[in-house]
Amino acid sequence: SEELIILGIETSCDETSASVVRGGREILSNVVSSQIESHKRFGGVVPEIASRHHVEQVTYIIEEALREAEVTMDDVDAVAVTEGPGLVGALLVGVNAAKALAFAKSKPLIGVHHIAGHIYANHLVEELTFPLLSLVVSGGHTELVYMDEHGKYEILGETRDDAVGEAYDKVARTVGLPYPGGPHIDRLAHEGEATIDLPRAWLEADSFDFSFSGLKSAVINTLHNAKQRGEDVPVKTIAASFQASVIDVLVTKTMRAVEKRGVDRLVLAGGVAANKGLRARITEVCEERGITLTIPPLSLCTDNAAMIAAAGAVMYEKGQFADDRLNGQPGLEL
Ligand code: KG4
Ligand code: ZN
Question: Where along this sequence does the record place binding of substrate (predicted)?
Fold first, then answer.
């Protein structure tokens, strides 16, 4: 159905977003209102502030998405909304807005998993082919997901503690960089040399799980010990060494999974997919091995509703609809 029109809504964290996607892959609009400025002075996302922003913004953002796409609710075939995981108060704003619209206009309602959305950001760029592997790296998630058809997800590995973006943000905070720290560490990493030998958490030999809290602690200890000795470690050296460890583990484990599952298609997803070092390294390795790689543009890597509409379109085709019991689920499983 080329002409399927989905309205997507995303409010799981600190971006209020609405989007209209046609035929599952064509973005007619993708309006994103970021709250980063409001959270910056607290050094992270404050759930209460996030919810309040979503409440203030959501109606306007939806109206703007429809206006930009030059459609009305009459043209919309279904409303897809992030059901979870995320901040419960934030999720509820999107879910309730979607429910209100869907029932007022007698449209089907679809509850989308946020990670499915991140993966489907790639479908907006390059049609997904199966089987594939997806590395999802964001502020809240670090997951290796295997797919052999649309809408079916198998988690091969995930973080046992901090998400990779969270580790970036914590290390950034330790060295006095503003929130969100990921982009700052990335920039500084390219100016410095990875001369500090930081740990790599390989875990069990056959594990595709990740762990980043030990790495974060190692950075803190390194800084502490240097200070006691009266030495000064340049931030760019810390950034480069930290980033080298993260990329080494992410890329090595991803390639092991690619080999084990025998896939030749890899997609990257989530805010940390914006990382220049990660993009460069994974592109290089995929070229060496003849693996087709898709990385969404920055605007589709970070939270947005187009990816939710794209994942929702697949659920529409499968007849996976929600009813009026749809609720925000902070710990929803993929
Ligand atoms: O996907 P996203 O926008 O929100 C979540 O669903 O979490 O990801 C945000 C995360 C933040 O932790 C941010 O520091 C990180 O992505 N990030 C980066 C870069 N750009 C954003 N981390 C490393 N390098 C970057 N260039
Ligand atoms: Zn996200």
Answer: 136-140, 169, 182, 186, 275
